[in-house]
């Protein structure tokens, strides 16, 4: 089917097709539908308990929905193990920092390359030939991540000794080290001050624009969401209330009533 200008519509990179997820008698997601297109930043917003993280967990393979399909590049990934999904090109960060706190920043970033490592145990153990060449190649990619996120000065520091904001940046870096085509970010700015949020927003835009990664972002800071997102999906109690451009979503009466409560709150916060 052709769109209004006579061109074929773009093919979604990620399709959320009727996804429903239950935990016993509690429905976390109910028939959620929306598409994410290559090269975009797709935000997911909603109050606490809306199902946002549950949806990311379904995409990354941590949860298996009872109904619906999740297609990445046309392939249904429901039921696939998380490490297989990661190998397809999907990486994520977590709401709560999930780093190896007693290891250095560099070591944590190198661990992000593990899904791409091909050397066997023997060649890796003697560190010769293929294993040596492979580590050099992986190290070059990690160095690019370090430069992008401006963390050269902390590369050899132990992660657990870093301030919270820098730990969040390192976690983003570990996800980027996987060279993902789709990057899932679960509240990457939670707990940050305004300066740290500005830096993180800039890095996310750089990842999208310079590295070409498509991003699905959960975030509570509506100012950030409206500034950097191409499309915004709104969840409430597992239901999709709206999905559209920031301007469309901010003026949607259902979103105002259910999420923001009062229209003047939109003007003040957004």
Automatic annotation (TrEMBL):
Range of residues in the leader sequence: none
Q: Which UniProt keywords apply?
A: ATP-binding, Nucleotide-binding, Transport
Stored PROSITE patterns: ABC_TRANSPORTER_2
Keyword Nucleus in the entry? The reply is no
GO CC terms, sorted: plasma membrane
Q: Name one GO molecular function term.
A: ATP binding
Family matches, as PANTHER family: ABC TRANSPORTER ATP-BINDING PROTEIN, CONSERVED COMPONENT OF ABC TRANSPORTER FOR NATURAL AMINO ACIDS-RELATED
Q: Where is the ABC transporter domain?
A: 14-262
Name listed for the protein in its UniProt record: ABC transporter related
Keyword Nucleotide-binding appears in the UniProt entry = yes
């Amino acid at each position: 089917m052709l769109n209004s200008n006579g061109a074929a519509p773009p093919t979604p990179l990620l399709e959320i097709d009727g996804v429903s997820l239950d935990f016993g008698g509690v429905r976390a997601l109910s028939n959620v539908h929306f598409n994410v297109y290559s090269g975009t930043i797709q935000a997911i917003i909603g109050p606490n308990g809306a199902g946002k993280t549950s949806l990311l967990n379904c995409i990354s393979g941590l949860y298996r929905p009872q109904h619906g399909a999740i297609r990445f590049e046309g392939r249904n990934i429901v039921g696939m193990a998380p490490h297989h999904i990661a190998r397809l090109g999907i990486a994520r960060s977590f709401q709560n920092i999930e780093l190896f706190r007693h290891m250095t920043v560099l070591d944590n970033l190198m661990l992000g390359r593990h899904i791409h490592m091909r050397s066997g145990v023997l060649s890796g153990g003697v560190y010769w030939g293929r294993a040596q060449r492979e580590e050099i190649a992986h190290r070059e990619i990690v160095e690019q991540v370090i430069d992008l996120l401006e963390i050269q000065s902390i590369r050899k520091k132990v992660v657990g000794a870093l301030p919270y904001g820098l730990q969040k940046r390192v976690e983003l870096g570990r996800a980027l080290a996987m060279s993902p085509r789709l990057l899932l970010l679960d509240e990457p700015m939670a707990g940050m001050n305004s300066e740290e949020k500005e830096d993180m927003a800039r890095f996310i835009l750089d990842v999208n624009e310079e590295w070409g990664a498509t991003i699905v972002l959960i975030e509570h800071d509506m100012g950030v969401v409206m500034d950097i997102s191409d499309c915004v999906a709104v969840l409430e109690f597992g239901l999709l209330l709206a999905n559209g451009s920031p301007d469309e979503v901010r003026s949607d009466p259902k979103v105002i009533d259910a999420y923001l409560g009062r229209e003047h709150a939109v003007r003040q916060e957004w």
